[in-house]
Each structure stands twice: as structure tokens, then as C-alpha cells.
Write a structure and sequence with these properties.
It contains eight helices and nine strands. The longest helix is centred in the middle third of the chain and has 22 residues.
């Protein structure tokens, strides 16, 4: 059961896949849910507000943040691509968000980081959150920047942040890699709820995964958050194996945790 301990939560990236999945779920965590994206995505429903804002526009971001007491930041570019758009949305955009949070006194943020921050670790390894970042592309670099920026805003300004390194959040795993990285929509909401409601969050990096039998990530350092996943990719394993070929162990996408991201680009 979700805990409602916030008057108004801002959800950025509300028009994206995860934003749509969380829109109704997050209403249980607050009195009013403010939804934002840079493109129109419909009218506000009951107990909702809709604010359109481009993350690269500092004034628009400031207006978007004003009056909320927590932020779930899913906004930005979520795939590998050319640097210029990633710079605007994921680097300048996350700076604008934290500056707005500082100016308006917001003290808790759930930042959608990514497993691609550590994509160049091998699939034969199990890593903890204190291992050095090894981004698998420019997108991963931008999320590593966001993690560092959020740590700075915690150390200097006391803004608590959970950096959630989201694995693969879909209705079900699409391939064999996702048997290790899968995060159900309900577990994503459970994880965000834990981050929003834990008494002391600090600056915490958490791997966003369900209770999968195969995993490359150890979440022991985030026990204080209280996240207990209830779903698992295990129930999909036989179906995934039946519809996918055996892995080619010479393929970098099979060798490294980032999958196909490790061989995407360069972009000109």
C-alpha cells in the first residue's frame, strides 16, 4: 500500500512510457500530482496539474518546480544518440531542475538514472553501487553527471536524492538480457514510494530491478530505503528462452551489462 506523505509531487517526463505507467500509481503518494513534459499530453485529471516545460529552459523549469515538495524526475532523453540533444535535456536540464529545487526549497528528489551508467561492466560480474561509473555511451555519461550533480546538491544544500539506476522497465522482459535487468511497473512504483517515504534518504544510489533470480547488481547498500520487490522475471524465463536464440558470447552486447548500448554510435 502506498504512503501519502506529500502534498504535491512533480512527475517530469509524464508523456513517456514510464511516466504514463506511473501517472495513476503516484496519485496514491500525494494530494496533488503535478505532471510535466515538453509536449502536450492531454488535460489534467482529478487531483492533477499539468505544466508544459522544456528542461533546457531554466525559467520554465523554475515555474514547473514552484510549489511542490518532492520531485520524481523521469524527464529527458532515455536512449543513446547525438550529444547535442542529450546535453540540453539531460545535462543542462538536470542542472536547471536542481537549481529550481534549491531556490524553491524542495528537499527530496527521485532521479531516474540508468543501468547504462555501469554498462561497461561485464555480465559475469555482480557490482555494488559504490563501484566506479563505466558508462556505455553518451546517454550513460549524462546520467553519471546527474548522479554527481545530485550528490553535490545534497552535500552543499541538503537536497536528498535517490538515484535509481533503472534497468529495463516494461510489462515483461523482451529478451534474455532483460531477465537480469527487468523492473516491473508495480515494483518501480514500490521503489519510488520507498524513496519518497523513508525517514532518511540522504544521497542513495539504487539499482532499479525486480526480484530476479539472475542479477548483476547488489542493492545491499540501499537497505535503509526499505524497497522490497514483489515481482520477478523468473515467470517469463521459459517463454523468453523459447523465442530467442542462444547468446553469441563473442558479441559485446552479450559480454557487457549495457547490452546493445555498448556498440551504438558514433553519431555524426
Amino acid at each position: 500500500m502506498s504512503q501519502n506523505n506529500h502534498k504535491k509531487i512533480l512527475l517530469t517526463g509524464a508523456a513517456g512510457g514510464l511516466g504514463v505507467a506511473l501517472r495513476q500509481r503516484l496519485k496514491a503518494n500525494c494530494d496533488v500530482l503535478r505532471l510535466s513534459d515538453r509536449v502536450s499530453f492531454g488535460d489534467a485529471g482529478p487531483n492533477e496539474e499539468v505544466v508544459l516545460a522544456d528542461l533546457s529552459d531554466a525559467e520554465a523549469v523554475s515555474a514547473m518546480v514552484r510549489g511542490v515538495d518532492a520531485i520524481v524526475h523521469l524527464g529527458g532523453i532515455s536512449v543513446e544518440g547525438p550529444f547535442a540533444p542529450i546535453l540540453q535535456a539531460n545535462i543542462i536540464g538536470v542542472y536547471n531542475l536542481y537549481e529550481a529545487a534549491r531556490l524553491h526549497g524542495v528537499k527530496r528528489v527521485v532521479f531516474a538514472s540508468s543501468n547504462h551508467v555501469t554498462g561497461f561492466y561485464r555480465q559475469s560480474e555482480t557490482i555494488t553501487a559504490d563501484r566506479p561509473a563505466r558508462p556505455d555511451g553518451l546517454y550513460g555519461v549524462s546520467k553519471a553527471f546527474g548522479e554527481d550533480l545530485s550528490r553535490f546538491y545534497f552535500d552543499r544544500y541538503g537536497i536528498e536524492t535517490a538515484c535509481v539506476r533503472i534497468g529495463s522497465s516494461f510489462p515483461e522482459p523482451k529478451d534474455r538480457r532483460m531477465l537480469a535487468t527487468w523492473l516491473s511497473f508495480d515494483d518501480l512504483h514500490r521503489l519510488i514510494t520507498a524513496c519518497l517515504s523513508t525517514p532518511v534518504l540522504g544521497h542513495t544510489i539504487i539499482f532499479g530491478m525486480s526480484d530476479n533470480a539472475v542479477t548483476w547488481w547488489d542493492n545491499a547498500q540501499a537497505k535503509h530505503v526499505g524497497y522490497v520487490p514483489q515481482d520477478s522475471s523468473n515467470v517469463f524465463r521459459d517463454a523468453v528462452y523459447a523465442r530467442t536464440p542462444p547468446p553469441d558470447l563473442a558479441d559485446p552486447a552479450v559480454q557487457f551489462q549495457g547490452g546493445a548500448f555498448v556498440r551504438t554510435g558514433p553519431f555524426t
